[in-house]
TrEMBL record:
Gene3D superfamilies: Fibronectin, type II, collagen-binding, Hepatocyte Growth Factor. Signal peptide: none annotated. Residues 483-529 form the Fibronectin type-II domain. GO terms for molecular function: ATP binding; transmembrane receptor protein tyrosine kinase activity. This is receptor protein-tyrosine kinase. Keywords: ATP-binding, Cell membrane, Disulfide bond, Glycoprotein, Kinase, Membrane, Nucleotide-binding, Receptor, Repeat, Signal, Transferase, Transmembrane, Transmembrane helix, Tyrosine-protein kinase. It is found in: Cell membrane. It is a single-pass type I membrane protein. It holds the Pfam family fn2. GO terms for cellular component: plasma membrane. Transmembrane segments: none annotated. PROSITE patterns: FN2_2 (PS51092), PAN (PS50948).
Amino acid sequence: MASSTSFKLVESFLSIREGVLLKGHPMQWQRTTSFFSCAHLCLRKEGCRYINYKASTETEGVCELLKDTSRDHNNGYIDGPGWFHGQIVHSRVSARTGSNTPDFKFTFTTLGAVGSNGPIDSYGYKGTTLQGKIKIKNGIQLWTVPLSGSYVIEAWGASGAEGRQSADVSATTRAGGKGAYVRATFVLTRGKVLKILVGQTGCTGKVGSPLPGGGGGGTFITSSTDVPLIIAGGGGGGVAQPGNLHEGDPGQTTRNGSQAGGSNGSGGNLSQQGSPLALLECGAGGGLNGNGKSRMIWVGGKGFTNGGNGGNSPIEGHGGFGGGGAAWRYPGAGGGYSGGGVVKDKNETIAGGGGSFNTAKNRTAISIMFVFQAILFVFLQSGRSEMIKRSAFFNTDENVKLESNEIISRQTSRSVLSCSQKCLSEPLCLVFNYGSSSVNRGICELYKTSSDGLKLIHEPGWLCGHLHGPKKVFKECKTWRTKDGGCCVFPFLYHGENRHSCVVDKLLGLWCSTTDNFDVGKTRGVCEDFKFTFTTLGAVGSNGPTGISGYKGTTLQGKIRIENGIQLWTVPLSGSYVIEAWGASGAEGRQSDKVSAVTRPGGKGAYVKGTFNLTRGKELKILVGQRGSRGKTGSPLPGGGGGGTFITSSADAPLIIAGGGGGGVAQPENFHEGDSGQTTRNGSQAGGADGYGGNLYEKGSPSASFECGAGGGLNGDGKSGEIDEGGKGFINGGKGGNSPIGGYGGFGGGGAAWRYPGAGGGYSGGGVVKDKKETIAGGGGSFNTGANPKKGEGLGGDGKVIITLLEAEKEKFQNMNLAILLQTVILCSSPPRSQSLLSLQIKEGFHLVGHVIDRRKAPSVLSCAQLCLKRRHICRSLNYRNNERNMVCELNDKGTDSRGYTSLVPTSGFIFAELINLTAHYRPSNSKGKHCTENSSVGSNNTLEARTNFTFTTLGALGPTGPKFTYGYQGTPLEGKVTLQNGIQLWQVPLTGSYVIEAWGASGADGREGGYGQGDRRIAAGGKGAYMKGTFNLTRGTTLKILVGQTGGRSNTGANLPGAGGGGTFITSLSDIPFIIAGGGGGGYAYWRTTKDGDPGQIYGTGSRHGGSEGAGGELYDRVYPSGSLESGAGGGLKEDGESGNFAEGGKRFVVGGEGGRLKYGGSGGLGGFGGGGAAYRYPGAGGGYSGGGVVKDRKYTIAGGGGSFNGGADQEKGKGVKQGDGKVIITLVHKAN
């Protein structure tokens, strides 16, 4: 669309209406290819203000241009199916109205700078189109695009300096290579900042003989973040020596530099044939990302991202600014996208030219020139009321098409306007292509490509539009947005009560008032979707974000506080939420800092998803894992571990955690990718377990330490090496490990890297395992307490969290005091006898339609309820309305169904109430003058139904200690009813009556043969926990102590990895008198000769394998050496601890806390389960229980016993080896006392 003729620049806005046309005042009628062609004609036609357009064929349509008059045209509009009407609502002509030539050509120079450094000021642009438009930063020119549109960019690289035989004027010379020339067309957006480095010619040496030339600098045009648009390579320097006369190579038109030049953006190399490692007194050219090679003090050119300075020389044969290499005895090479190199053999030395780069398609192989005659900004606005605030400007280009692989969708559309509307409604869409395929249909392609450096190709009949302004123009909201662009007002008055969040309605969904009093104003809007995306907020490395500006314009704006990098967020509305979490990936490992060096990627982070019931006002702590960093100094450069992503309560109780990936390593003969974040709870490669950090393990030398860090877990730090740090545990801040070479672990507990890679953080940190041939960094473990769990491998890069409201909690019934009073009146009005306990659930502002069986007048809602009770055999609900003139009581034969209030209609002034049967029987008092008991109100424990279940769990706790928080009981009958005492749960009996108690002990851990990285060749199962059931008469207010047994852990030290014992499950009185106890299983043991499963929890009082009896702990017994001690722990009982071995402790007795056994000298593996499970080191641990299990060893095998059980109830049931995993308790009310 470039033209050699002069034209004036017109910037216009066009308002468009579909399905109408304006009659009268025609100026011109002709056929055009599209609506936008018609609009461009109007822009060029003096006096034109309106257009009508209708497509008549696939490739053209009718265009009517209408003149501008002072007459109001509103009465001239008529319906016109298939027509589009446009009105120019604003036009602005270029400021230089005295000339028809647009002033949009910009020529950038070196501003008089010479040598290896760039210009220091922009004074040389005085009187040009660049006056006042340039900033200089370290010699690089920063320029802001003045207007959105299509630009031609031409770039020339600088030439290398000539080489001279001596300083004599008549000396023989050889020219330096000329710079390359590249040209392309780009679509640039107004306000974008470009970085422009104009290459400078190299310098010829001035002292001595010969005097070779320095390399010329490349010319670079990139985005502000160093993403290249176009680069022209510089030429190599010339050389004139006796027997060695050679011109420098020119700048290359391909991406690679010549003569041992670099590739893929790296710097060039120096090469001497026959002696590749010999020293050459010169410098290679710098590339985009890497410096040119240099020998001794003759510096190669710097890479563009390192400043782009030319190399320096003691004889002043400096390389040109733009990465030119320096010259002394030999010439320097040219800079460019990839730097040129220098090659020497016996006869000659040649300096290579730098490579070039061009992202555009329409290439012809620095000047920037605006090339479009008119810019049409189309203002798109829907007529629907809920979309009034959703608008944008699109810059449109005809007969061109975007070519990109970032396509969102490809679909049919009836017109270009429909296509643009589709782009508006797609949040990620920034660019669209539209090509007509018939009169009323075409192809619409939506893209998410940014408008920086778009690749446009010539395509007749197509139109490309790209976003010019914000897609949604919403005013700022301090509370919550509505879908029509308004703001919620909190609190607002609704039926006399203040509401502090969106109201849940079955018909309307979530809505809020847009005034402070809905009862008066009656104005409301539908609340915007409750979806929250948490990111790293741009933070990188081992520390988390410090500011929240990155959430501006999102649903999290103003809703986040930062505390040491962790984001604190308050749940806005009670309901069911889906939480998705991605851990961060580990950094790649590189063999060196060269762009062309061999690499191995870091492991990707894990992905976990679950559904959670969250309560409004609850605060969550969210740590979004950050990617690890690669080392920057030396060789090799391993990668740091990726951080885990954590979502916990404010008290650090975990909801969901996604593990981070391990770092990659690329060393000679040691190329290995990092492990991915694990979808199980334990970290890989000597990783931690039960929320602890990972370990460092060298095969053949288990106690050795080496230069890297393991990943941090929820509760413990990763192990640190000799120099590098392990990642911190979440409760210790979650920072990544630090490294002296910059190989930091990512925020979220990633381990640091120096000589070896760092491991990933997570629920349990990843470890690092090294042997003679390879080193592998493990991924962190994950954790998920949600319903409907999903897991898998995530994406590369930083972590992420998305929290989406799945279903809001139904609006709680109002006026419960009214329901209580109503119930008391109803009950006390009858004679003293057995009767049903009934209550009314009330919903204001609604009435049920279509089910009325009777309609009467009633003075109050209580009187209406009495009428319904009298006809209780057919009346199920009521509608009531009371005002000065009308008191209506409607009795209904239907209430709610399983789908909710399907026939409810919002009606101001009405109350809907439904009869609810709370108990099967109720017996009032016989006291004189009273017909009701004191417990007749709704909300008392009398409302408990028979067969009510209370299920007690481990609350997500793992290892030797019990839970610290009761968050997991939220939304269950135990919410607010349980307190914790050192992990033991205290619960008060709610009603006097008969209860069935069921208890399951925890299983022991599996034993596995095979050390780290060897696989699991044999597996021996841990014993399952016992099951006990009995019936007990319990009195209201009695406090029970409940310890739910936890699974044992597996050892992570040595070639054989035995399992620890599972904890027993205990239910006792407050004074430790047992009601029922279920024994835990023993740990498994796998050895190369044999495997032995652990014993199950026992159904009798005595533990197995030299287990205890009558509440005592178990023993350790070696049949070969009876006086010896085993490296394991026996199970604890009710009254006594289990016996401890050389390195492992026995389980603790219940009366002192019931903790599982630990390793005596530290370590996170092989810990006994809470409930008295014995620890495992070389041999397995035994199960806890009423009496602890023991451990027996002979020459061929070792077996860990199960804990004993106890049952003091009636109607007993029991089973041995029933429960796999953690224990459990279910208490069921089966009969309430009268």
